[in-house]
Predict the structure.
Amino acid sequence: MLIPLLTEYEKEHIAERQPLPERYLGLSDEEMAVRIRAAKEALGRRVVILGHHYQRDEVIAFADYTGDSYKLAQQVRKHPEAEFIIFCGVHFMAESADVLSGEHQQVILPDLAAGCSMADMADPEQLEMCWKELAELGVNGGANRIVPVTYINSAASIKAFVGEHGGVVCTSSNAGATLKWAWERPSTPPGAAAPKILFLPDQHLGRNTAYKMGVPLDEMVVWDPNEVRGGLTPDEVKHARIILWKGHCSVHTRFTARQIENLRAQHPGIRVIVHPEVPWEVVQAADDSGSTEYIIRTVKESAEGSVWAVGTEVHLVNRLAAEVAPARTVVSLDQFGCLCSTMFRVSPNHLLWTLEGLVAGEVHNRIVVPDSQKHWTKVALDRMLSIS
Ligand code: SF4
């Protein structure tokens, strides 16, 4: 199995895990497994554990459901009987679960330090400013409409803004359908030009999805929130069909077209499949691209003897490789394995601590979206769930 090498950045950030009480440190894997199972059993149907595909195996082993953000968001709705939803993922996912869950349910994130560098690249003040500046540029307001679309990998405050301004949340599973939905929003006055989309925070998912739908690159612009008016001229903005926020995933942008070239030279006949958070040129060099669920399905359904290089987080790649072997071979597109260091912060120790806390009647690390954001976040998420 591929053991990912950690960069200095990752080592430093993984070290910033939420501290645990002394008694939860230094436990053997066996002891943790026994105690996690016992706590789960004691809680029964009062708890449901959701595990994102990018979690490490020692955590996934205890998940009731695994999936990508979209699939796990759907699971929240399917378990109204669970008082507690433990979300083994990152902060924005737990926020979405809180919004989609019932009043009687509490959502827990085992390690509060498990954030997402991409979600951190868009803050609500920057978005307010962008919205205002787009109006000053003459493309937002009056007969011109902009529909904001935010990737689920964003803070609840961003989703609330988007919901309140007629927009929607998307995931990598339904990004194409969501862009179609947004471009088809009625224009005002009737007959005016189709709306433009403001897509945030991941420029790559926005670009790759729009390009796949036939939008040429010269009808897309990148809005840099650190520049006045996004660093764009009025003409550039007027000409664009989609305005891409300058954000990215620090894991997926490590994949390169050169890696694909090298692998093809070493393994003639290898097929390459990547996640759409990778840069555009990497998608172009690959054979296929899609959400984590799509990647898993495509590889599992491929012909026996197929050899795949997969460009997404290494824990998913390793598990997929083990599941499809020996009939199919799967390797990581990055020979060192790209690791999501923030997901990696959720450890079995943290999971045990939260579970035993619940057994003892203590709720640790509850994630609560403020009431002021809840309504519009829910509107944006409900729109997402209605688009397939
Ligand atoms: S893989 Fe990238 S987008 Fe996903 S949680 Fe990690 S940093 Fe965020």
